[in-house]
Amino acid sequence: MDEIIQQTRAVKDLSSHVLGRLETMLEGPAWQGGGRLPPEAELARQFGVSRPVLRKALVKMRDAGRIISRRGSANFVQPRADVVPSAADMQGLSIQTVFDMKRCMRFRQVVECAAAEDAARLCDPEGIRGIEEAHRRMLTLPPGEGVFEADFAFHMAVARATRNPYFPFALGTMRNQIKLMMEFTRKLQERPPDQVAPRVVEEHQRVLEAIKAGDPVQAHEVMSFHMKQSVIRLLVEDGA
What we know:
Domain HTH gntR-type: 12-80
Structural class: mainly alpha
Protein name: Putative L-lactate dehydrogenase operon regulatory protein
Keywords: DNA-binding, Transcription, Transcription regulation
Low-confidence stretches: 1-11, 82-92
CATH superfamily of the largest domain: GntR ligand-binding domain-like
Number of helices: 10
Largest sheet: 3 strands, antiparallel
Pfam family, one: GntR
GO molecular function, one term: DNA-binding transcription factor activity
CATH topology of the largest domain: Four Helix Bundle (Hemerythrin (Met), subunit A)
């Protein structure tokens, strides 16, 4: 019995030691945007412990919201946003968990659906040209250039097409959070940062067409669909 107790204590001590090393590792710059952890067998060898010991440490990190598991297999580090947005009302907000991402996406959905609706209702030629230009930029993205800037430019163009400065202001305050979520989603899907997803381009095209047609209801609906698909991609329910 004493031997079993000693072995149990030894495992706990080792797992605590591994937990500390994992936490230190994930504080490094390479992991601030999240990413996929090496396989458990590789990590166990790296730390010089057995897989059961490593798993105890990983369980604690999952409980703390630092990592998540994808369909019960790979472990992914959740990103952290330490940059505080410039707007006073956004101070203190950061993305540290998937729950934070979902809340941010919910707010973004409200703002962007209303923006698309108002842009279609106004149907301003200059605003539409701005959306078209942003859309073309994503279609002709040079190799090696990240998708985020082109994607965000499209959504900002829709916001500006409302001619209501509060829409681009609200969206602009979320820029860092949106970038973090997009980068994390791409890491989950193991997609290169410069690879344009055809489905995203198609969804943008539908938003553009609804706004050009001056159809507020359709613009709201297609933007809502696009936002919902973004949540699905974030949660890795659909790798497309």
